[in-house]
What does this fold into?
Amino acid sequence: MPSTTRPRPWWESGTIYQIYPRSFYDTTGDGVGDLTGVIEKLDHVSSLGVDAIWLSPIFPSPMADFGYDVADYTDIDPLFGDLATFDRLLAEVHARGLKLILDFVPNHSSDHHPWFRESRSSRDDPKRDWYIWHDPAPDGGPPNNWISDFGGSAWEWDAATGQYYLHAFLKSQPDLNWRNPDLRAAMFDAMRFWLDRGVDGFRIDVLWHIVKAEGFPDNPPNPDWTPDKTERDKVIQLYSADQPEAHAIAAEMRALADSYGSRVLIGEIFLPNAAHARWYGTPQRPEVHLPFNFQLVENPWDADVLRRTIADYAASLPSWGWPNWVFGSHDAARIAARIGEAQARVAALLLLTLRGTPTLYQGDEVGIGRVPIPPERIRDPQHFRQPSLNIGRDRSRTPMPWDKSAFAGFSTAEPWLPLNPDWPERNVAAQSVDPSSMLSLYRRLLTIRRQTPALAIGDMKLLDAPSGMLAYIRMQAGELRTILLNLTDSPIAFDWQGDVLLSTLESPANPGQLRPNEGLILA
Ligand code: NOJ
It folds into this structure.
């Protein structure tokens, strides 16, 4: 894992914090967060010690998929505010020395987008080809066996014009046709609109989906599929995603971003290592700066598995590719729900000391765990498509608990999703004054990371360690830090040496062992 001597862009040493605006802070009293709410809580973000905010979609949308169904790429949904409020947010973010990354959703729009309305109006409409239309199969059914990521056929019949249209997600999220040059130009104009306003980059939604194979062949069946898996996995997405032509588009997006100076592109890409690494492009034709790496979310919390995962990922990176790590998002289960609060502290240490840009998800800094969502309050459309799988994403989208006032200080009205049941104690205000809280741990970790080049940008070497433990060193220009993590709730005998810069536990560390649930940074 070699280091390089080139100048470092901000997003390599920086930490990204994801804000899910619906659930951050509501200033209008409608139970849904908004942009003024983000502005009012920026001090929380700066005091955490992160460098950049990634905002989930804020564009006009019927909210069938909570903003990932965009009806206008160049405006703000009134639920969140307006362009003037957005400009104020951007100025306030920059005034604090932070960066702002927007969510760009290029694979699909909303079916309410005027482009789609025109496209579906007739087969001869000039925008017909901006979306993916196809005649039925000979039996009148869908053109092929592609399955939507949310379950069911990826094709929807349009009786008025007698063709099917493709949707990789909900039927109200028709896929855009990136093979059409006019659509392409319109989407690049949308990116320019925000870059001209001064945004610092984009997180690009399902980037690997944006081009489909010519001729729309059937996807091969997945021999490992069992009914407890999502319907999507019945077939292997060989022809519906990760097509070579999509890389050319990513390279074009990168060229656009680079023409604005230091802007970052982060691609949402779920693929095995070798295919994933290709999204960095080449030095001659770079693609995204960071293909999001979700392997901490996807893999079991087990020291052996993680050691292999970390090593394999590092080995898969091209020499010009900077790594990154994600531990939670608006789509994944909460870390603390998955592995418990004691281990969530160890996970925070891991995320913030691995080599690569970390992305934190709002609420993880106070350790929100499992939040029961009563059936009548379920909102996630993915849940309704396949209820038996219990994979609803509402569990990670619950509002930020700010303090112990009504509705956790999130809103003056009943929030759109329930709060974490322990909000009267588990909230930002309470944890801010408690040195042993999760929030204090995150702040300490981020402070140490900022002050320690070895942790922010240094090389990394995995060490041999007893079962249940992860150990590695980070080093930069003669500075060396050792990280030891006990991923179990039993003590592990281990003869460590050095000064303890940070422990996930409160009392002094014991030489000769790692205590249950203990993580250490040693100098
Ligand atoms: C990935 C987003 O993170 C998720 O929330 C959304 O439903 C899909 N892409 C479709 O846009």
